Amino acid sequence: HRCTGGRALVVDPGEAPAVLRSLEQNDLSLAAVLLTHAHWDHVGGAAELRAKSHCEVIGVDGALIPAADRTVADGETLTIEGVTVQVIGTPGHTRASVCYYLQPQGQNGPGVVYTGDTLFVGGCGRLIECDAATMWRSLQELAALPAETLVCCGHDYTVENYEFAVSIVPDNRRIRDRLAEIQKAIEYGRLTVPSTIA
Question: How would you write 30-62 as a 3-class SS string?
Answer without folding.
Answer: EEEEECCCCCHHHHCCHHHHHHHHCCEEEECCC
